[in-house]
Design goal:
Length: about 200
């Protein structure tokens, strides 16, 4: 959606907008004294806590840039403290979190990012609730009915419930994107680099 495509009705309600579906991850970024050899100890000099993942990054970046339409999140988080952190960070940015499903049997996805100043970062990732996202859990039609116009999905290659190929030769992502297009939404897909064939 280009700026200016959104319109307001007589009550000032925004129409148009972007729903961002996919990864919602709590990032714990550790700054290390050095990268240790196996069996050695390094000091954690500093730690930051953030919320990341394809969908989380895009929707919060749009909010921080002052996107004038509606913004919504869709995906899975755990029914845990990290899930509350995700919801709180998005809600503070003005993002509708009604499409985030809290799963009691999964933890919220999280990453430990190991950072040695001057070197590349190393990521240790646990998929948690992100691994449970399927095309049955996200309803593009409901977002279209609420006036949204764009549907972002990311990161593929990090969403096994959508990446897997079924007996019919199709992935859950293909069905989800087809449902979004059928509902009249314009789609956008984001991938992550992966060694998975």
């Amino acid at each position: 959606m280009r700026a200016g495509e959104e319109v307001c009705d007589r009550d000032g309600q925004k129409h148009g907008g972007i729903v961002c579906a996919g990864n919602f991850i709590v990032d714990r970024v550790h700054t290390l004294s050095y990268w240790p050899e196996q069996g050695n100890l390094a000091h954690i000099l500093h730690q930051d806590l953030g919320v990341g993942g394809g969908a989380a990054n895009v929707v919060t970046d749009l909010a921080s840039l002052g996107f004038p339409g509606k913004l919504a999140a869709a995906g899975c988080i755990g029914a845990d403290q990290d899930g509350e952190i995700v919801k709180a960070r998005l809600a503070v940015a003005g993002v509708d979190v009604g499409g985030l499903i809290a799963l009691a049997d999964r933890v919220t996805a999280h990453t430990h990012v190991m950072n040695v100043p001057g070197q590349n970062r190393t990521f240790f990732y646990h998929g948690g609730a992100n691994d449970a996202v399927t095309d049955e859990l996200v309803s593009p039609a409901a977002f279209a009915k609420a006036g949204y116009r764009l549907f972002y999905l990311g990161y593929l290659m990090l969403l096994p419930g959508l990446d897997g190929i079924g007996p019919d030769g199709r992935s859950g992502a293909s069905r989800l994107l087809e449902a979004a297009r059928r509902a009249g939404l314009t789609t956008c897909v984001d991938f992550v680099s992966s060694e998975d064939p």
